[in-house]
Amino acid sequence: MKSSVLLNRGPKHQTRKSILKLQLIRMSLTNQEAQQKLEPFVNDYVEKLNSGDINYMNNFYHKESVMVEQGKSCLYGKEAIVESLRQMMTECGKTTMQISNSQYQGVGDFIHIETDFVFQTEKSGDLKGHYLQIWRKDGDGYTIYHDEYQMI
């Protein structure tokens, strides 16, 4: 008897499921809307990184952010992430970043960008990769909640 109750949740369950689907659809952003909301923050991120203002980079990351290098490492917290950026720029010398082939998508309080990047460095040459950043609504703006990349 218990198993049949679990398997047949009835119309109330289906209605709740349908309502949840509709809510997600209403919360979804078109790709253009996602880009319009997030691109100014992404451009500011790249500009600050290119200026070498590592201390300011702390403002771009959520307090519970993570950075993942696929298959290699994971950092938790904005302090650890910013320290990693500082270390990279110390080891590589003057570093600038360019992004290309960017795609934006969003739902609710989360918008993500998936893009190719090139770090042009003084000591290590060009370092190419691909990243996915999930930005989370944070006050009046967005901060990076998940930053995942792979070097190519």
TrEMBL record:
Q: Which CDD domains match?
A: NTF2_like (cd00531)
Query: Which InterPro entries does UniProt cross-reference here?
Result: DUF4440 (IPR027843), NTF2-like_dom_sf (IPR032710)
Give start and end of each DUF4440 domain.
Answer: 42-144
Give the superkingdom in one word: Eukaryota
**Which protein are we looking at?**
DUF4440 domain-containing protein
Q: What is the phylogenetic placement of the source species in the record?
A: Eukaryota, Metazoa, Ecdysozoa, Nematoda, Chromadorea
